[in-house]
Amino acid sequence: MSTLALRALSKRPATSLRPLQALISQRGVSGTRLNNKPSLSHQTDTSMSSVLPPPPPPPKMSFQDIFAASQGEHQGVWKNLWDKGTYHYWDRGQASPSLVDFLRDHPDLFQPSKTPLTALVPGCGRGHDVNLFADLGMQAYGLELASSATDIAREFSETIPPPPAPGSRSYITGDFFSNEWLNRLDTKQFDLVYDYTFMVALDPAKGLREQWAERVAGLIKPGGILICLEFPLYKAYDLPGPPWAIRSETYMGLLESVGFERVHHEKPRRYLPAGKDTDMISAWRRK
Ligand SMILES: C[S@@+](CC[C@H](N)C(=O)[O-])C[C@H]1O[C@@H](n2cnc3c(N)ncnc32)[C@H](O)[C@@H]1O
């Protein structure tokens, strides 16, 4: 990865957000016609509607309400959101400028290598960060739970220029905690793993943060790097997720215990709006 490549990349225009897909609520059809004549109930409905005001629209559920209503079936919720194309809740249409700056500022993070570096982005969404790593000449893999998500990421990648050689981008469907997707890849461990809004999207009450740390440690080569864009550091612990509140000390507690050493921890120079002035970015070397 050269400094020039990073500079050129930071000047690329940010890709714009696709128009949001409207949520269409499915309604049952009342007043079914028989022999093309309005039914009695239809006539009744019509006459009543001139007397009564229309019923209020159902209250809109917040993102967090949708997860709370699922009674812990979060993977099903993610899949459903992707199947409906409602990724606007989290998608920001571009790789994080904090990450772009961080990679440019720390070219020493990676040793020169004869083979392309491999990068993994778990819960990659539409793949903006995967595409960034590929543009830097890495073999970049994005992992997503639903095939509808990887289809959307692949489709999006076809709208942007291909990465320069030897960079490549692949979008894999699978559960981060399962080996099924890993068994399909030639690469079993990566030089780099990047986490942004993935670990904090896993329910901490189920012990998934500790499982995430163990899993990440297994997926990174000895000497390899984990980069975390730490978010949401501002959020109160009693507020519902995802994303669930976190602090820098939490990353430290989770990652030191599975063999990582923190080698950088800094305030980004540029932010995405969601974490403006509060995000931190950290890099961890696997011992
Ligand atoms: C908040 S979104 C963030 C997506 C992406 N990092 C971004 O910033 O646009 C979290 C993503 O993690 C994915 N996800 C959740 N649990 C997962 C799992 N066990 N394995 C793989 N992906 C998962 C969801 O489908 C969702 O797209």
UniProtKB/TrEMBL annotation:
SUPFAM superfamilies, alphabetized: S-adenosyl-L-methionine-dependent methyltransferases
Pfam family, one: TPMT
UniProt-listed InterPro entries: SAM-dependent_MTases_sf, TPMT
Highest rank taxon of the organism: Eukaryota
Regions of compositional bias (Polar residues) in chain numbering: 28-50
Keyword Transmembrane tagged: no
Keyword set includes Cell inner membrane: no
GO BP terms, alphabetized: methylation
Residue ranges, annotated region (Disordered): 28-57
GO MF terms, alphabetically ordered: S-adenosylmethionine-dependent methyltransferase activity
Alphabetized UniProt keyword annotations: Methyltransferase, Phosphoprotein, S-adenosyl-L-methionine, Transferase
Name used for this protein in its record: S-adenosyl-L-methionine-dependent methyltransferase
Organism per entry: Arthrobotrys conoides
Lineage: Eukaryota, Fungi, Dikarya, Ascomycota, Pezizomycotina
